[in-house]
Amino acid sequence: MVKSNINALGIIFPNYYDSLVPELVNERLMGSIPFASRYRLIDFVLSSMVNSGINNVSVLVREKYHSLMDHLGSGREWDLVRKNGGLTIWPPYAEKGMVLYDGRIEALEHTLDYLKKQKEKYVIMADTNVAVNFDFRKLVATHEANDADVTVAYTVEEIPEGSLKAENAKKDMYYTFDFDENGRVTKWHINTKEKRVHNLGMNIYCFNREYLINLIDDAFIRGNVYLERDILANEVDEIKIYGHKYEGYCSRICDMKSYFQENLKLLEDENLEGLFAGGQIYTKLRDDNPTRYIDGAVVKNTMAADGCVIEGTVENCILFRGVKIGKGAVVKNCVLMQDTVVEPDVKAEYIITDKNAVITAGRELKGADSFPVYIAKHQVV
Description:
Layout: E1 8-13, E2 34-35, E3 39-40, H1 41-51, E4 56-60, H2 66-72, E5 86-90, H3 104-109, H4 112-117, E6 122-127, E7 130-132, H5 136-145, E8 150-158, H6 161-165, E9 175-179, E10 185-190, E11 197-208, H7 209-221, H8 227-232, E12 241-245, E13 250-252, H9 256-265, H10 269-276, E14 292-293, E15 298-300, E16 303-304, E17 309-310, E18 313-315, E19 318-319, E20 324-325, E21 330-332, E22 335-336, E23 341-342, E24 347-349, E25 351-353, E26 358-359, E27 364-366, E28 373-375
Parallel strand pairs: 1-4, 1-6, 4-5, 8-12, 14-17, 15-18, 16-19, 17-20, 18-21, 19-22, 20-23, 21-24, 22-25, 23-26, 24-27, 25-28
Antiparallel strand pairs: 2-3, 6-11, 7-13, 8-11, 9-10
């Protein structure tokens, strides 16, 4: 792992965009959703932080976080078992007469004592609805070069269809920016519906730590809830907010359709290489046998993790650990999560199965690229 530390600590919000994929977060949060055959979504931003030399990372969870705690453990796989710093998981606070936090301001206000005790100059904040191999050292360099209060990472692209259709009255789904000739944000747009290429935010930010502490303290006293909507978007003339353009590969999870399609995109070499270009992505280890291909198995253009046993035909699929495909089964264009069992003579196409799902012998299931069929965790079909 990279040892050239940068003067920053990391804060990850793994719950913030759970509402985009309600089926997948029934028993987990966004950060622990399986992705790319053997990873979880949080692995990408967390590994990127570690590879950038950030060894003090806090994960602010809100609810349904037991799966994430099991996955992260002590942080050993990310080299975050340390006497000072390392990985800290903040459970949701519970005080008499107080509900779970909603926006970032409420969440961060309850970590202010912790933030005040830290020594790092900068704070990197990120969500887990994007899978990206991000170099945070470049973000900090942009932040320092502009002497900014806040730096926002963005890509230049059209707004994904799933984001445009998302319905959530309580939260902002996405942000777009206008910049001046020096790269400073002049306008912060919230949930714009204009269909064109935008400077689209990645929900990755760099703050001066002392500035963030004062900002949150003041905002909480005034009753503000949402950092972006209530503070940053309204005060672009007062706050020095600059942009950092990211030009690498980025998978955005906006709904079930995008989750399905972003997984299958990784079957194309250029996309797979783009996502894993740069630093290594770390994840929880599961000691298992290599995938076994039994006599008669036919496998084409498929990503299969360890522990799989394949006896049938598999084409254009993402198979997570321990998936079993029975003899005579034909599985095409599917995303099958950990320990899914497809019994003999099944015909399945455009299916997403959650962990430990079972498709019984002889069944025929077919969805569509625009509407994949989802089978819930432990469900038997």
